[in-house]
Design goal:
The protein has 16 helices and 18 strands. The chain has helices at about 40-50, 85-95, 125-135, 150-160, 205-220, 240-250, 265-270, 280-290, 310-335, 340-375, 380-390, 425-435, 465-480, 485-495, 520-525, 550-555; strands spanning about 5-10, 15-20, 25-35, 60-65, 70-75, 105-110, 115-125, 140-145, 170-175, 180-185, 190-195, 225-230, 250-255, 260-265, 395-405, 415-420, 440-450, 455-465. The strands form four sheets. The protein has a six-stranded mixed β-sheet with strand order 8-4-1-2-3-14, sandwiched between helices. The protein has a five-stranded mixed β-sheet with strand order 11-10-9-12-13, with helices on both faces. A four-stranded antiparallel β-sheet has the order 15-16-18-17. The model is unreliable at about 490-555 (pLDDT under 50).
């Protein structure tokens, strides 16, 4: 069977485990914990490989939690092939040090119709390159660089027989100066943390118990704590077991990682005393081929699945338009032969229209300048009315902030909305309702807040109002009224044009008997027929005195 080497190191010690691996079968042949003590890591590693005869084996490297940046991410429910791009996009906002070139990988912890929860990790390319350089200096070919706490969790979740499908299980790996705490819910890892431990052996158990309580609170453990497992031997961690059992009131036990794999007889007698520190390396060897989906691997991060190109389909897509263009060109060439005379006559007609075209262009240019200026005059009241009509009810969505801005140079405007919803599906419905030919909607991100509030999902949307729609709405307001409105306006103008006797007082004609004159533009007034005043004959009946307001009141009563 091929042999593989798993190793990791920190400031205090170097840890190595070599095993013969064939699929899910792992047989440990070498295991050692070597103190560094200020020495040169490359020389110590080279001497260890030479001593165990491991110079030409494949290498697997585990990194401590402190060497990478971890975040818990919540994303909307999307297919797996879209997750790498979404994680990359979200990382630029959630990670403090993740730049464009950062190496990213993630492990899904929970998936539901409400979204996808995951643990995402990022490492700078320079730090990853320094690790590869160390392995290159000792002629070790590395195929994986993984996250150490998840390696140990993979060993327990794939090999232990007492894995509980219900409740939370806490796995604790005690190193020389640190403790790595992993919380597994069912058969999925949900929380990873590394804490510093005091140098005094007497105070370590109580400090570890306190850190465990804080880790359970951070992981949101509100249900049953199934068990707590310390990697290692009972004889080594007896004090820690008692303190943790007293602090949590739960079952606490130790688990020797070598009991979950086969160990070669020649190596079983030389296993290190603190065997729990090698649990991540054994887990890395086990998961390398049988369960790589449980690892965060910076050398082989999850990427979008690339679909191989279909050359036949590409050739067909290119060839068909070319053939169609050639056929169309032939038909056009054939038609052009019979259109020469028509072209000549149209040129003559066009030449006669050029003076009118020049005059029209001057008018168009002036109008366009005015239109460009007015395109920035967005009717925000109409936009807010439309928003209120399409917005879901308040028991599903609430707005927390709204900001409008216009583009005076190009026209149009932008309405920025931020709020919260009770279900992420409502955001998609809201976007679809807001989006039309005049409005473009772009979501700026969605995240779930850990709170008891019903509006757990926050969102931010940008609604762009196109300059073209502003212009169209303006011209619709300037369009002439229908024929009925025009006739009514003409009758109003004719009645208003009838003169009143000069000696009649202004109050003789009640305002309710005279129609209101419709406001008209200068062009409409000029286009209407002029109504000559109707003369009043001298023999006409004398004008009766207008009734007083009191008389009008009595008559109406």
């Amino acid at each position: 069977m091929p042999k593989k080497l798993a190793l990791d190191w920190d400031d205090d010690e170097l840890r190595i485990v070599a095993a013969q691996c064939n699929g899910s079968s792992v047989k440990v042949t070498n295991a050692e914990v070597i103190a560094i003590g200020g020495g040169n890591l490359v020389d110590i590693l080279r001497n260890a490989l030479t001593r165990h005869g491991l110079e030409k084996v494949d290498g697997l490297v585990a990194l401590g939690r402190s060497k990478a940046e971890l975040r818990d991410l919540q994303l909307p429910p999307v297919p797996d092939d879209e997750l790498p791009d979404m994680v990359r996009f979200q990382a630029t906002r959630s990670f403090a040090s993740a730049g464009e070139n950062a190496i990213l990988d993630y492990l899904i912890t929970n998936r539901s119709d409400r979204g996808v929860e995951m643990i995402a990790a990022a490492i700078a390319p320079a730090k990853l390159e320094s690790i590869r350089q160390i392995c290159s200096d000792v002629n070790l070919a590395v195929s994986r660089i993984t996250l150490r706490p998840l390696d140990a969790a993979a060993l327990y979740l794939t090999r232990a027989k007492d894995v509980s499908a219900q409740g939370d299980t806490v796995l604790i790996d005690l190193l020389a100066g640190d403790a790595e705490i992993v919380v597994a819910r069912g058969k999925q890892v949900v929380f990873v943390r590394t804490v510093k431990l005091p140098s005094s052996p007497e105070s370590r158990p109580s400090v570890l118990a306190g850190e465990l309580r804080r880790s359970l609170v951070a992981a949101g453990s509100t249900g049953t704590l199934a068990k707590v497992i310390l990697w290692g031997r009972e004889s080594v961690h007896h004090a820690e077991v008692e303190k943790i059992a007293e602090a949590t009131g739960s079952e606490v036990s130790t688990l020797d990682p070598f009991s979950l794999v086969e160990v070669e007889p020649s190596a079983s007698g030389s296993l290190p005393l603190h065997s729990g520190r090698l649990a991540p390396l054994i887990g890395l060897l086990v998961a390398d081929q049988s369960a790589p989906e449980r690892l965060i691997d910076f050398l082989n991060p999850r990427k979008r699945i690339e679909i191989p190109p279909n050359h036949a389909k590409t050739a067909l897509l290119i060839g068909a338009p070319i053939a169609a263009m050639l056929l169309l060109g032939y038909l056009v060439y054939k038609q052009l032969g019979s259109l020469d005379s028509q072209i000549a006559s149209l040129k003559t007609e066009i030449a006669g229209l050029e003076p009118q075209v020049k005059t029209a262009r001057v008018s168009i240019d002036r109008t366009e300048k005015v239109d460009v200026y007015l395109d920035g005059d967005v009717n925000w009241l109409a936009e807010m009315k439309r928003l209120a009509e399409v917005m879901p009810p308040s028991d599903k969505l609430i707005l927390k902030a709204m900001n409008g801005s216009v583009d005076q140079r190009k026209g149009g405007g932008r309405l920025t909305l931020s709020g919260a919803v009770t279900d992420p599906a409502i955001i998609e419905q809201f976007e679809s309702a807001m989006r039309d030919g005049a409005h473009e909607v772009v979501g700026d991100g969605t995240s779930e807040q850990r709170s008891e509030d019903a509006y757990r999902w926050t969102f931010s949307e940008t609604v762009s109002v196109s300059a073209e729609s502003v212009r169209n709405a303006r011209y619709e307001g300037l369009a002439p009224k229908d024929e009925t409105s025009t006739d009514a306006a003409s009758e109003t103008a004719n009645v208003a044009a009838v003169p009143v006797a000069a000696d009649a007082p202004a109050e003789e004609t009640p305002s309710r008997d005279v129609p209101l004159e419709t406001e008209k533009s200068a062009e409409e007034l000029q286009a209407e027929p002029q109504v000559e005043p109707v003369p009043v004959p001298e023999t006409s009946t004398p004008t009766q005195e207008a009734p007083t307001p009191e008389a009008v009141t009595e008559t109406q009563a």
